[in-house]
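so my prof wants the structure for this chain in the C-alpha cells format not the other one, which i didnt know existed until like an hour ago. anyway here's the sequence
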Amino acid sequence: MQQEPSSNPKVYPSTFEKKIGFDAVRQAIGALCISDLGTEHAHRLSWNADAGVVRRELEETAEMAEIIRSDTPLGLNDITDPSVWLGPARVPGAFIEPRELSLLRRSLSTAADISAFFGRRDSIMASDGKETSRRKYPRLSAIAEDIDAVPEVTRAINDILDRDGNVKDSASPQLRDIRAQLSSLGGRISAAMRRVVAAGIKEGYLDADTTPSVRDGRLVIPIAPMHKRLLAGIVHDESASGKTYYIEPAEVVELNNRQRELEIEERREIVRILVTVADTIRPHIDRLFKTYRTLGIFDFINAKARYAINVRAQMPQFSDVTEFEWYGARHPVLQTSLERQDRTVVPLNISLKAPKQRLLIISGPNAGGKSVALKTVAIVQYMAQCGVLPTLHSNSVMCIMENIFADIGDDQSIEDDLSTYSSHLRNMKYFLAHGNPRTLILIDEFGSGTEPQIGGAMAQALLTRFNKMGMWGVITTHYQNLKTLADELDGLANGSMLYDRQKMLPLFTLSIGHPGSSFVIEIARKTGMPEDIIAAARDIAGSDYVNLDKYLLDIARDKRYWENKRQQVRQREKHLEQVIERYENDAETLRANRRALIEEARQQAGEIIASSNASIERTIHDIRRAQAEKEATRIARRKLEDERQSLASASAVDENPLLRKAPKRKKKKSEPQAQPSGPKPIAVGDNVLLDGSGQVGTVTAIEGKKSTVNFGAMKMTVATDRLTPTIRKARSSMGAASFVSAGTTDAMRERQLNFKPEIDVRGMRADEALQAVTYFMDDAMQFNIKRVRILHGTGTGALRSVIRQYLATVSGIKDFHDEDVRFGGAGITIAEM
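here's what i got, hopefully its the right format
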C-alpha cells in the first residue's frame, strides 16, 4: 500500500530531540557549514512525513557524499550571507564597500564553479543502441539550475578591484591622478622627516634609534618631555606613562595638511566609483539573492554529506509499506564518543514486519543496552526523516512514518504538579489520542514509577490498546506479564539484550524472538550480596518465577551457542569458496599453459616439416643433376632416409622437453642390440642445441673445452659438452624471435620501452661496474640502440680503463670516445654501435 504524505505529522514531546541525542547531531552539522546561510538550514532541520521529500533530500546528500569521496570534489570555499550589505544597496545613491564587493565576487566565482560542475553531462549507450547523455548527479544538478553567476556584476567588480580587494588606481583617471600626487607628496614628507630626525640626533635631543610614528593620521616624532621645547612643531599626543611626547615638526605641517586633503579627495573619488558600481549591481539584486539562497542549500547539503562520511552513514532502501529491516544500525553520538576512547559501538539489527511483529518488547539486565537500543531506533528513524543519512548499512530497508512519540526519562514537574508516574500517564494519554498505524512509539521502562503489580497491569492494558491501534514501536521493560503477553498476541514480539553469564558482562547485542532475563540473582551474587539474602529472595519470588528466569537464561545461552555455530559454518563456507576459486584459477592457468605448449610444439613441427621439404627438394635436384643414374639415385635415397630419421629423432627428443624427460622403454633381451657409434665431435660451423634450450646456434670458435656459439644476435661461450649437434638451421636474430614465448616477448618489449641509453656506474667496484656495463651493452645491441653513454666519473681512472678495455672486445661497437667537455668530458664514455 502506497504511503500518503501526512498533512500534520507530529513529534512528541517537545524535548524529543534532546532525549534521543539528535540535538548533538544538529549541532555537528551546523558546525560543518561554512556560511550562516547553511547554518540557518541546519537550525531548521525538522521531521518530515512526505516520502518524496525525504527520499529527495537523502539522495541529494548521498550524491554530495559521492562527490566528496571522488577525485574532483566540489569547491565550496567562499559563501557569504550578503543580506546585511546587499539589501541596503537597493536605495539609489547607496554603495557597497570594497571588502563586501570582494566577498561578493568570490561567492559569485564559487557559484560559477558549481554551475559549471553540474552542467556537465555524461554520454551513455541506451538499450536501443543510441548514444544519449545524462547528468551524473541528477538531484544536485536540479538544484544547481537555480544558480545565476550574474557575470555582469563580476565584470563590474573586476574593473575597479584588484585581486586583494583594493580599489585599483585605474578605476578612474581622477583616482590615478590623486594617488600619483599622494605618492610624490609622501616622498617629500619622508625626506623632510629624515632631515628633522638627523638634525635632532646630531643636536642630542633625539635618540639614535628614533623613528617617526603616526598619530591621528599624521607623521610625528617621539621625543622626551625634557627636550620637547627643542623641536618646533605641534604636539599631537603623549604616551600613557607621560615619558614621551609626539610632535609634528613645523617643516612637515603644510605637507601633512596637503596629504590629508588628498586623502579626503581620494576617499570622495572612491565613493563616487563605488556608487557607480552599486548602480550597476542594483538591477541584479534579486538574482543575487536567489543565487545566494541556492549556495546556502549547497552548503547545508555539503555539511550533511561530510557528517554522513564522519559517522559512516549510508543511503538505505525504502519500502512503500510499513516495515523495518535494519542492519548495522548505530547511534551516531554514542559511536563518536566511543571512537574517541578507541572503543567500538555494537551495531543493532532489527526486523519488524506486519502483522506478526510491530511492537518489539525488549527485556534484559540493567545496563545491558536496552535504552541505547531504544534511542538508536529513535534517532536513526528521526535522522532519515529529517533528510540526514542514517547510520546503518545500505542494504537496510526503511519506511516513512507519520508520527514519532517517545516516553523516555523522567518528566516530573513541580510547576505542573506532575510526579514521575503521572508524567508517564500523561504521555500515554497523548499516544492514545494521536496514534495511528503510521505512528512509531518509543517507551523506556514501561510501567515503572509506581507499585509494580498495578503498574504492570496498567502497562499491559496500554500495550494491548497500542497493538489494536496498529502502532509500531520499541518498548523496554522488566515486567514478566509484558513478556508473556508478547508471546501470546500477534503484533507483539519479544527481544532480549544478550548477557555473558560466565563473565557476568553485557554483550549489548539485541536478539529478537525470546524474552530476556534481568539476571537479578546473578548480578547480586557478583556484587557480593550475602548468600542468605539471595536465598531468601528466591524463596519470596517462588520457584515458578525462578525456574522461568532460569529457562530464559538457558534459551539465551542456547541461542548464543547456535549463533556461534552458524557463524562458524559461514566462515567455513567462505573459506571453502575461496579454496575452490583458487583451485579453479590454478586449473585455468594450467589449461592456458597446456594450450601454449601445444601451440609451441605445433610451431616447431611446422619448422621440422619445412626443413624436411627443403631436404627433399635438394635430393630431387641431386637426382636430376646425376641424370637419374641408379647408383646416384640409391645414394640420394639413402641420404633422404638418414635425413628423415634424424628429423624424427629431433622432433621426438630435441624439440619437446616433455618427451626428452620421458623414461626410455627397455628392449627385450631377445632383440639384437646395435653397438652405438661414438658421437661426432663438434666443429666450427656446426649447428648445435644448448642443453635445456630449443634454440639453434652456430659454433664460431672452439678453445679447449669451451665453445663460442652465436644464437641470433647473442654470442655465448659455453662448455662444449653442453652442446648437441643438430641438422636444424640456425636462425637469424629476426627468425629467432619466433621461438620466444608471448610472455617473454612482452617482457622484452617492456624492457625496451623502459630502456634508457645511459648507465651510471659511479661508486661501484670494477667487477660490479663491468658486469652492469656488460648487461647494459647486451640490451643496447638487442634493442638496436645506436649510441649510449656510460657515466664512470674521473677519479683515479680505474673504472674508465676497465670499461674501455671491455668495449674494445665487443664486436658490435664501432667506436667509443670521451663525451664533449661541455657535457662531462673524460668522466663519460660514448659508445657508437
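also thought this was worth mentioning. The first strand starts at residue 11 and ends at 12.
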